[in-house]
Specification:
Layout (H helix, E strand, L loop, with lengths): L2 H6 L1 E6 L3 H9 L1 E3 L18 H18 L4 H15 L2 H8 L12 H7 L6 E6 H10 L3 E3 L2 E3 L8
Antiparallel strand pairs: 1-3, 2-5, 4-5
Helix pairs in contact: 3-4
Length: 156
């Protein structure tokens, strides 16, 4: 995305009309959800190619020329070791990251239906640069999923 487009780029968050959404709007906060709590267990799952990982480990250990000659059994052992080391990565990430969903469209009927309780809710506009700046600087407070950052306001 070009710098000029980023300056004026807005992203939107559709919200249900409930006390949590209204309170977040009033306090200029937004919630980050843990992927391990999503209805879709494959949502936010990272694909881990253990074959590529084991190949890279072989290259690192044995240098590139020798890695080509490593036995199939040794490569399989390294792949299994990688699975043991990285096998729980998805579960660990899903328990320890927060996800907030935004849209580039303010008037998407499907989004209004799914995330704003059939158009009974509201949509909040955010500056793309403000969100990126916040994430880059970790200038907000993170407390179990609640992000506080006074977007577009002076901090006291």
């Amino acid at each position: 995305m070009s710098d000029d487009r980023k300056k004026n780029f807005a992203i939107f968050r559709y919200r249900r009309p409930n006390k949590y959404s209204l309170e977040s709007l009033k306090k200029d906060e937004f919630w980050l959800s843990r992927p391990d709590k999503f209805n879709d267990s494959s949502d936010s799952t990272f694909y881990i190619d253990f074959e590529v990982i084991s190949k890279k480990i072989c290259e690192y250990i044995y240098e590139t020329e020798e890695a080509r000659n490593i036995s199939t059994r040794a490569r399989k052992d390294i792949r299994e070791m990688a699975k043991r080391q990285f096998g729980n990565l998805n579960d660990d990430l899903k328990r320890n990251i927060g996800v907030a969903c935004f849209s580039e469209e303010m008037n998407n009927q499907s989004m209004w239906a799914s995330y704003a309780e059939d158009s009974k809710g509201f949509v909040i506009e955010y500056s793309y640069l403000d969100i990126v700046s916040f994430l880059d600087s970790f200038g907000g407070e993170f407390d179990g999923g609640l992000c506080t950052n006074h977007f577009g306001k002076e901090k006291n």
